[in-house]
Amino acid sequence: MEHLVAAAVIDARGVVTGWSEGARELTGRTAGEAVGRPAAELLGDALPAGGPVVLRHKDGRPVTVTLTACPVLGPGGEPAGHVVTVVPPPPPSLGELAFQQASMSMSVFDTRQRYLRLNGVACQVMGVDEDVLLGRPFPETVEDAEHSQGFNFHLREVARTGRPVHYESYTGEPSGNREHAWNIEMWPVRDPDGELTAVALAAFDSSEQYWARRRLALLNEAAASIGTTLDVVRTAEELVGLLVPQYADFASVDLFDWVLGSDEPPRIPESHIVLRRVAHGSGTDGTPEAAVHLGETDAYPAYSPPARALREGRAVLSQAGEPDFVRWVAERNTRAPAGQPHRQGVHSMMAVPLKARGTTLGVAVAIRLTHPDDFGDDDTVFAEELASRAAVCVDNARRFARERSTALTLQHSLLPRGLPGQAAVEVAHRYLPSGSTAGIGGDWFDVIPLSGSRVALVVGDVVGHGIPSSATMGRLCTAVRTLADVDLPPDELLTHLDDLVTHLATYDDGSADAAELGATCLYAVYDPVARRLAMAAAGHPPPALLLPDGTVGLVEMTPGPPLGVGGHPFEATEVDLPEGAIVALYTDGLIEGRDRDIDRASAELCSALAAPAATLDALCDTVLKAVLPEEPGDDVALLLARTRALGADRVATWDVVPDPAHVAATRQAAMEQLARWGLDEASFVTELVVSELVTNAIRYGEPPIQLRLIRDRTLICEVSDASSTSPHLRRAHAFDEGGRGLLLVAQLTQRWGSRQTARGKTIWAEQTL
After folding, report:
1. pLDDT tens across 258-301, in order?
2. What's the N-to-C CA distance of the chain in angstroms?
3. How many other β-carbons are positioned within 10 Å of the β-carbon of residue 102?
């Protein structure tokens, strides 16, 4: 298209005397409208020698042009006026077109931070036309905020140093409420002489990249901050803490009741779904938006986003204006009207199911109020990934809690609930399961009544934690009781127990290497008649002993190897104890630990035992408080036994002549002793028992033979001889002349049995008193 040159002639008085067609096209004024009028009405108050001038178009809008004024001389050479021409602007250069059409915001400032140029995107970001900003300092056009101050600082620095700057900023755009991330590049602009005349910048909207990085950072943070403990509620709280306030203004986690208990997961109902609130958080103190208190249940209707998320197994978005969203907010306001003012402005909601290993555990809900952006499709992908990680942690915590509860229940069922009645010792005990994430260990103890008013004190520990350890502990506990019933000495009992552990390990693992089982055990037998404690240990710490005179210390004994090693002997240790001595048996969790010195802990144990205490139960508490750290790393079992003694007035012993003719005299001596004890009502049964056991010892045993009566909570009759052959109970036939003696003993007494001794055997029988 051909452009006409705009020209006008102005005389010496400043009046337009000539007007070209090009001037008409430029200003919209015809020659008749312009000629004869003062040029000032068109060109301003003064004529510049050159440069840009703003003309006044007929419709009132400004027209910026570059004028050239040539003087016109009269006949005598005097000034007669000017010929003013406007050179048509050249077509925009490729660089100008690129600047205006750039997809990023581009601006140019002078060295005093005033606007010189803006492209279309920059004007769109600022929300005004370029003319409104030209010549104005940047601080006057934005709010006085931290990000604006930082932007202005960088403009000044580039103008001062002449060095380019690159930085990122996260802020809102002046023309709207949406938050944006900006990747900004500023550089100096120099004239041909190298002088810095302006600062140019380009700002790229990197919001998508920014949020992608933030979501990835949150996922990485979730790996470190969610699941730090094996506690279901704490894990839910960690998820909420990650979401609020950086990703949502309010978040909550609701779980099915069975997740918090031991039930199996039911099917998700199609109608109302009942969940329990375990965690929630808000950007506002006190979480006033919450319509459900912590620990309460809530029935989610079928239309609600949480119920839909649970049924559909995916994240569900809901935005302000949608019918179900409006209905849901109204339901929340009805349920908790006090929080309604804090729910004003809720505009976006996302519910995502917590699924782990194919099982739905509950739902997490995120809500935005002050956060300007709605949740989008990218957010659902992120939320499902985050919820998946959190759900695995919740499920791990649930499984741990369930296994811990099962192991603890199993262990408690195997530990003695009510200690059996016996007069040999007074006992008190404590069992403290560890709070470690490894689970419940295999610590155990037992008190087993033996024949002759003796008692066995047992404490042991199975290496490992959880249900397998508790199950192994149960098997060992049962085995010890069985072997104790045979009345083996401590060293022989541990030898048989060691063989049993070896067989158990071989059966369980399919190999002969049983060392991995690594169980330890201390078995002690106290005889209140002899006032002697016999004990043997398999890899177990020695007991502590407190005498009535206040002397306290660890018993010196030779510990054998742990059970299951095999091939090594166990040595028994015997200690004579006065009445009232306290024996402390314990597992290694009491004195051992990662950062604990065993010798120091053992000394603390001895000191604690010597502390005054009203009862054995109180002494147990004193010991645990003094010796254990605040957070024990292993299970602890503690068994305290205060010894008693049976005096000579409660025990009667006779050496029996190995002749059947002396049975009657022995029987008569026993009856006289019962009379002295005031137990005449027991004389009939005792007479039969003494006759039978003494006769059998004379007939089938070997001398020396001894009869002993013990008056305890029961009346005990014992006959010892040098033969190691044990009697057997058998059923006599109708015409047999013998074989009915032991059957009568078994029928008339509470219990009977035999035990091996160092010099033979002892047959015993007990009667209730």
Report:
1. 888 766 677 666 678 899 999 999 988 888 889 999 999 998 99
2. 132
3. 15
